[in-house]
Fold:
Amino acid sequence: MKTFNYHTAKDVKEASKLASSNSAYLAGGMTTIPSMKLGLASYKDIIDIKGIKSLSGIKISRKSVKIGSTTKHAEVANSKDVKKAIPSLAALAEGIGDAQVRNRGTIGGSIANNDPSADYPSACIALNAIIHTNNRKIDADKFFKGTFETALKSGEIIEAIEFSIPEKSNYQKYPNPASRYAIVGVYVAKHKDGVNVGVTGAKSCVYNDKNIAKTLSNNFSSSAISNVNVSSSGMNSDIHASAEYRANMIKVFAKKAVEAC
Amino acid sequence: MASLVGSRVERKEDKKLLTGRGKYTADINFVNQTFAYFVRSPHARAQIKNVDTSKALKAPGVVAVLTGKDIADDKIGGLIAGWRIKSEDGSDMKVPAHPPLASDTVNYVGDHVAVVIADTLDEARNAAEFVKVDYKVLKAVVNTAEAMNSDQIYKDIPKNLCFDWLLGDRAKVKEAFDKADKIIKIDLINNRLIPNAMEPRAANADYNPSNEEITLYTTSQNPHLARIIISAFNGVAPENKLRVIAPDVGGGFGSKIYPYAEEVVCSWAAKKIERPVKWVADRTESFLSDCHGRDHVTHAELAVKNDGTFLGFKNETTANIGAYASVFATVTPTYLFGPCATGVYKMPAAYSNVKAVFTNTAPVDAYRGAGRPEATYTIETLVEKAARELGMDPAEIRMKNFPTQFPYQQTLVHSVDSGDYVKGLNKAMEVADYKGFEKRKKQSASKGKLRGIGFCSYFEACGIAPSPVVMMLGCGIGLWESAEVRFNPTGNVTVFTGSHSHGQGHETTFAQIASDQLGVPIENIEISHGDTDKGPFGYGTYGSRSLTVGGTAIVKACEKIIAKGKRVAAKMLEASVEDVEFSNGEFVVAKSNKKKTIGEVAFACYLPGTYGEVKSPLPEGEEPGLKETSFFDPVNFSFPAGSHICEVEVNPETGETKVVKYTAVDDFGTIINPLVVEGQVHGGLAQGIGQALYESCHYDGSGQLITASYMDYTMPRADNFPEFQLDWTCTPATTNPLGTKGCGEAGAIAAPPAVMNAVMNAIGTEISMPATAEKVWKACNKNKKIKSEAA
Structure:
C-alpha cells in the first residue's frame, strides 16, 4: 500500500472541504482498502466519514424508508422497522457478503462503488430510491451510469438513500459460486403505479428490466414471466456464466421473486 | 491402562491451533530482519532481453536486488525433477533447466525473475515496481491436448514431450479386446486444481556468520528433503551447515513436499547479505506459483463380456506437467497413476500409456491423491458407463469383477495383501439405503428435481514406499521413515519422527501409539517433528504414508526400548532377562510380584550406580541412557479401499447440483483414532466434491491465470456439503505391525467419480468436471430438446 494522509471529518461540510481529485471517502472500506492494498488504487488523502453522526441511521415514514449512507448492512438487516416496512430490503442486506462485511460495509459505500454485481443497486432501482447528497437529490434510475460509475461529482457525498415502500417486493439472487457476488440478482417490487424489476450482476450496470416489469404490471404472477423474452444481448459472459445462462437465470429468479412476494 | 489405539482421543494440537497460538513460519522474525519480494513474469512465455535493477536499488530501504545472473554467477544449482522416468522406447525423460531465478527465458505467469530485499515488505514491494525487465513475448503453449502440436517451448525438447511412458502389455490387451462382446469408450478431462493450503508458502532464512550456518524456517511437509535438495543440488550450503525447520504448517496437500525457488533464493540471499531474509506468499502468489494438481486428458477403453465380466483395459493419457518438471511431477502421472488405473477389479489385460507434456503454465505436481484420483476417476466412470450400456446394476457389475482371494496380484504392478471389497460395497449400500433410492427419486421429482445416484469403489497404493522398489522405478530418494524414542530421566518421553504433521494430527495419534507401546500416559509423551537438527533424517508426510511407515518406525523403536528395559529391569530385580515380562508400563518377573515401572527403569538408565537411596546398577556392558532409533523400510505399499455412494439433486431450471447424501465406507485397516480419521475423510471429500462440482483452474489462451483469486477460483464451502455418512470395514494390513493402511487421500480419490456418476445418473448425459450449474443446465436443455424432438 502506498502512503496517504488520513483525515477524520467531524461533519459533512468538513469532509467535503477536505476532498480533492486525488482523495477518497472512507466509511466501511470494504472496497477502497482492498483496492489500495492490491495496488489497484492509491490516493493522496483518505477522508474517514464513518464518525459523522448525521450520516448514520434509519428513518421510517408512511411512504418511505430513509437510510443514512454510513449505516452498516448488519444494521439494515437487523432493523425491526425495515423488516416491517420493506422485509425484502432487510433480507437483501442479510445476504450481502459475510458477517464481517456486513458489520463494516455501508449502504452508501455500496451504492457509490456501483459494482455491477452488488446487491443494493437493484433495490434502489426496484424501490424508486432517491439518493440524497450534500448538494441535491438524484433518482436511482439516473444515478447508476455504468460499471463502477455513478452520477456523483468529485467530492459529492451521499447522505442518505430513501426507498419507497412498495405493496410487495422480493429479492432473489444466484450467487457466483466462488465470490458469492450476484451472477444475477433480481429485485421485484410492486408499487401502486406499477412494477419495477431491478437486475444486478447480469450487465455492466444495474438496470430495470422493462419487459418483465411491464408484464408483471399487467399480470403480477410468475406464470406471466414464462412468455417474456429476456435477450442475452449485452449481458456479461465469464467463466462462471455465459450471457445466455444469465438471461435464463433472470427469468427463473424473477419467477422465484414473484412467487416469494 | 486401557489401550488408546482405536479410541477417540481429542487432538492435542487443536488447543494451540484453534486459539491462535500456533507458530507458523510467518510468525518467525529475527533481529535485523529483511523482507523479500519477488519480481515475477507477467508473461506466460518470453525471452528476457535485459533486467535493469539500477532504479530499484536506489529506492528507500532496499538492501539488495538479485537476478538470474547473480544466482548463476554464484553457481547456485537449479530446481530438480526427483523421479527419472523412461519412455516406452527406452529413452530418458527430457527436462528443461529450472534456475531459481530465470536467466534467459520465463515460462509461466509467476515465474521468478528477480528478488528485491528491503528493510520492510512495503519497501521491497514498492521497489519491485522499479525493476525494469525487457521481455520479448513469445507465443504461449497452454492447452494440454494440443501441447504436442504447438510451438516448441524448449530447444532440446521436441513436441514439448517430457516422456511417453508405457506400463502393461499392448499385445495382451489387443488379444483381450478381440475377444470382447463390447468395448466401452470414454474421453475425460481431469480438471486442473490449485491446492490452496490455508497457510500460504513462506520462508525465513537466517545466516550465522560465526559458524557459517543457515537456519531456514519454511512451510514444508518434508524439511529433511528440503535440506538435502538445497544442499546437494542447489549447493547453497553443505548439509551440516543448513538447518531446516518446518514449524506449524497449515496444510499442504502435496504442494509443500519439496522446496521451491523462494526457499533456495532466501537461503542464498541471507548468506550473501548476511541478514535474515523473509518471504511470505500473498494469496495471488499462491495461486500463480504453488504447484497445481491433476490436468489430464484421457481416452480409456474397457473390454467386457455381455455378462459384465471385464476382459481388458487401456488408457491413453496426456498429462500436463506445466513449465518445468517439479520434484514429483514425473512420478505422479506414471507410477502413482498407471498401476491404479485398473481400479479394484480383476483385469486380465491392461496398459496405461502416458505422455507428459510441457506447457507455459505453473508446474503441476502431487496433489492430495496424486495420480490415484485421476486413475480412479477414469476406471470408475468407465465401469459405470459399462453398467449403463449393459443394462446392469452399478453395484452388480462391480461385485462381479472384485477379486475375493487375498493376497491378490494385480495385472499391472501391485500385490494387494488384504481387503474385502464385497463386504465394503454391501455395507455401503446398506448405510446408503440403496434400496430406498427409487422412493427418494420420486420425492425429488415431486419437487421438480432430478435425483441421481453414483458409485465409486476404489483402492489406492499408500504407505509410500519400499525404497528398493521405488528406486528401481527411478525414484531419486529412499522412502523409509525414522523414529527416535527418547526417555527423559524423569520418565516422560519425547518421540522424534522424520515425518511431518501439517494438519494430520500426529501429535495425538503418534502419541497414542507410543503410549500403548510403552505404557506411559499420553500426556507424558511429546511428538517432535520438523527440525532437521533435532530428530533423525526422515522423508516427511505425503501419500498417506506417515502412520504406516513412520508409525511403524515408532513401534520398532519402542520395541528396542523395551528390550533394553528388560535387561536393566532384570538387573534391578535380580532376575534373569528371560523371566522379565513387560506390559502396561511395568517390567514384571514372571510368577512373582517383583516389578519395576518403565519410569524407574528409565531413571536407572540415567543414574547407573548406587547413591544413597538410589540403587540402579546397569548390567555389565550396558550403555547408560534410554533412547532408541529405528529406520523402517516397508516391504510393500499398503492398500486402503472402499466404496462410496453419492446422491445428488439437480434443479433442471438452473442446473444447480446439490450433494444431498454421501456415504463412505472405507477400509483403512486398523484405525488408531476414529475422530482424526473422520476429519481426514471429511477433508478429502470436501476436496473431491470440490473437484467434481466447483474447482477448476483456468488459463486463457495467452497463458494468463484467470482464476488467480477467490473471486474466481471456486473453493467449496461448508454449505456445499450434506452431513457425511461414514462407516468402516477393517481388514488389517499384513505388512506392518499396526495393521494400518492410510486414510489421508481416500476422500479426494473416491468422491469425484461418485459425484459425477450421480450427476450423470440424474441428467442422463455425460458431462465433464466440474459439473457447474451452467454446464448441467445446458445438458438438461439438450436432453429436453432431444426428448421433444423424439416426441
The CA atoms of residues 48 and 128 of chain A lie 29 Å apart. The two ends of chain A are 45 Å apart (CA to CA). Chain A has two domains: 5-164, 168-260.
